[in-house]
Structures are given as C-alpha cells and as structure tokens.
Amino acid sequence: MWITSSLSTALTPTLVALGNFDGLHLGHRQVVQPILHKDLARQGSIRDKRIIQNPSCQELAARSPGNEGESGDRESAGGSREGGDRAYPSVVTFNPHPQEFFSGQRRILLTPPNEKVKQLEAMGVEQLVLLPFDRELAQMTPEEFVEEILIERLQAKRIAVGEDFRFGRHRSGTVRDLEAIAAPHGIDVFIVPLQTAENERISSSAIRTCLQNGNVQRANRLLGRPYSLVGTVVHGRQLGRTLGFPTANVQVPPQKFLPQYGVYAVRASWECDNGGPLPLPGVTNIGCRPTVEGNLEVSVEVHLFDYCADLYGKTLTVELVGFVRPEQKFGSLDALKAQIQADCDSARQILENADR
Ligand SMILES: Cc1cc2nc3c(=O)[nH]c(=O)nc-3n(C[C@H](O)[C@H](O)[C@H](O)COP(=O)(O)O)c2cc1C
Ligand SMILES: Nc1ncnc2c1ncn2[C@@H]1O[C@H](COP(=O)(O)OP(=O)(O)O)[C@@H](O)[C@H]1O
C-alpha cells in the first residue's frame, strides 16, 4: 500500500473514503467498501446505489477480510469507471487527528498506524493519504477542502463518508454539503448510515468500553474480528521460565489502547519464512505485574501452550478471544504460579468453546 503525507506524491485519480477509522470496526468497513474495486465489480451500475442500507452484524462480518467469498476483477472494475482511468482506492485521513491538534493530547488508539495499514491492505485499499492537519487546513471552508484537496489535488472520482462526518472550518460542513459541492463535478458521494449491532451504534468508544469491562466477545463482534495487539518480542527479566511459564513480552506502540488489566485467552501468530504457524493458543497477561517487585511498567506477555521456541525479535499478533480474570497482587511467586496454571486451564476452555 502506498502511504503518503504529501498531496504532490499521492497516486491519482482516487476513490476516497474519508475518515479517521480508529479500530476499523464493522461500521468503518461499510464506509470503505464503496471504494474497493471488488465492490465496484459487484455493484454493476453504481449511480443508483449511493445510500447503503444497514446490514445485519452477521452480514457485515461476512464482508470482513478473509471472509470475502469473491475476489472481484480489479481490471474490469477499473475499466468500467467514468473516464476509464484507473482510480486508486484511497483512505484519506488527517494526521494528527484534529482533536489531537486542538487539545495537544496524544490519542490512545484501537488501531495504531502499524495495525491500521495491515487491516486496510487486507481489505484492498491501495493508498493511505495522511493529510497534515495544521492551522491552514483547519481554516479551510468546506468548499475549499472539497474543491482544492479532494477534487483538484486528489482527483477524487468517488467519495465515501459516514453519515456523521463533519469537515471544514469549525466542522461546519455536513455530508449534505459534501454532496452539494461534489455534484456539479459529477462525483459520486456515498453516505453510509451509522451501523448498529445488537441494538447499539457500532463505535470506537463502544468497543473501548467493552474492552475496559472485560467484554472481549462483544468488542470482537462490533469489530468483526478479534481485538489484537501487535508488537515485537523483547527481553524481560527471564523470570517466566523459572516459574514454568515462559512468556513472550510483546512491545506494543505507546499509543495502543489496552483493555482492562488482567488475563486473556488468546491466539498468537507471526510471520516466518515458511509462512508462519497457524495462530497458536495461549494465555496473555496485560498489566503491571504487581506481584513482581518494582515492576510498574505495563507489559503484554504471552505464554503459548505446549510450545517451545525462541521468539525474541519476532512480530507477534495477539488476538484476544476471552477474558479470564483481572490482574492481582499475590503474596508469593508460588501462589502466582498456581494461579497461572488455573488461568491456562480456563483459557483452554474459553478457546475450545470459541471454536465450536
Ligand atoms: C497467565 C498469567 C497470569 C498472570 N497474572 C499475574 C497477576 O495476576 N499478577 C502479577 O503480578 N503477575 C501476573 N503475571 C505475570 C508474571 O508475574 C510474569 O509472567 C512474570 O513476572 C515473568 O516475567 P518475565 O517475562 O519478565 O520473566 C501473569 C502471567 C501469566 C502468564
Ligand atoms: N511456550 C512459550 N511461550 C512463550 N514464549 C516462549 C515459549 N517457549 C519459549 N519461549 C521463549 O521464551 C521467552 C520467554 O521466557 P521468559 O523467561 O519469560 O523470558 P523474558 O523475561 O525475557 O520474557 C520468549 O520470549 C520466547 O523466546
């Protein structure tokens, strides 16, 4: 995927999905869908299908990466577009996030850049444009933003946004304004209604709340995939192996959103020369390890069941499957060890049930 922060190096023309898309949950995926070539092929005539209906959670999940039944024909979809030029499915987002720009506070993210790029790539997005959000951009009117940036510089042929998208100075532009500004240029605007699941609006904050409450299964349903943590395995204190439970310490980006501190049933995977093993079952502790003296730093550590190998330096993807218990301070390492054994048993049970 081509990633650029400069309009002069962006690939054009484009099919644009506009937004921040933190988490890339089922609602976000609906916004990105209309710009994907495989979706263009499926749609046939596109002009009369600008408002996407609210599909069920299952239907949405079925369209998640890895679940796509058809691969689509990129070239024929590209050829059928207006003008015949090959347009690049592009996610256009602001960097830093406008809230971060105005508040000066770093945002904690469900999908930090490393994960977002992987997810977008898996969906079929070909370009990520990170528009530098500065005072000048913040001052643009809705008309200036659409005409100068989206149409002139990015040569957008199609624009997809969520229903609540706001843009331009003081967030004054609505999706209806976007339609009105784009229409004279013959640009399709797809306005995607807010998606709901289990009687709740699918949102990044709903997913955060679930993760804070240990409700991993629900968070995963809203995401349409398991919530995952991705990072490099680094050295720890080498205490794990003496307890009989070696744990790979996964260093996640500092802005990664962490769920409630505690123990989780997980599946972990990594890439290696032969394509990598299938996701392996295990158990993860996320927290400060209060039992271990002087350990205040938050860590994410994974013990893989029935497995022994050197994992240092590998990039692990740890998928949360279920919550086992909150983190605790134990009176002795022996007590901790006994509890870890019980955690492994619980986690195996959770993973077995999830497989059914
Ligand atoms: C399943 C599991 C549960 C754990 N639960 C706790 C806990 O409740 N409290 C705690 O202080 N540490 C907990 N730990 C962390 C251990 O203290 C940690 O694995 C040990 O300190 C090894 O650290 P090392 O990787 O630096 O060698 C847990 C670890 C595992 C694998
Ligand atoms: N089953 C396993 N699960 C996780 N890591 C394992 C396993 N078997 C071997 N390892 C290796 O052992 C390391 C963890 O051992 P540990 O004593 O906890 O050391 P550290 O404190 O450096 O993490 C991992 O980083 C990995 O390289």
From TrEMBL:
Example GO molecular function: ATP binding
- Is Nucleotidyltransferase set as a keyword in this record? yes
Q: Which reaction does it catalyse?
A: riboflavin + ATP = FMN + ADP + H(+); FMN + ATP + H(+) = FAD + diphosphate
Region Disordered, annotated ranges: 54-87
The protein's superkingdom reads Bacteria
Q: Which GO terms describe its biological process?
A: FAD biosynthetic process; FMN biosynthetic process; riboflavin biosynthetic process
User: Which Pfam families does UniProt cross-reference here?
Assistant: FAD_syn (PF06574), Flavokinase (PF01687)
For the protein in the UniProt heading, the enzyme class is transferase
User: What range(s) does the Riboflavin kinase domain occupy?
Assistant: 222-352
Which keywords appear in this protein's UniProt record, sorted alphabetically?
A: ATP-binding, FAD, Flavoprotein, FMN, Kinase, Multifunctional enzyme, Nucleotide-binding, Nucleotidyltransferase, Transferase
* SUPFAM superfamilies in the record: Nucleotidylyl transferase, Riboflavin kinase-like
> What are its E.C. numbers?
2.7.1.26, 2.7.7.2
Which pathway does this polypeptide act in? Cofactor biosynthesis; FAD biosynthesis; FAD from FMN: step 1/1; Cofactor biosynthesis; FMN biosynthesis; FMN from riboflavin (ATP route): step 1/1
* Function of the protein: Catalyzes the phosphorylation of riboflavin to FMN followed by the adenylation of FMN to FAD.
Name the protein family: Belongs to the ribF family.
Official protein name in the record: Riboflavin biosynthesis protein
Species in which this protein is naturally found: Oxynema aestuarii AP17
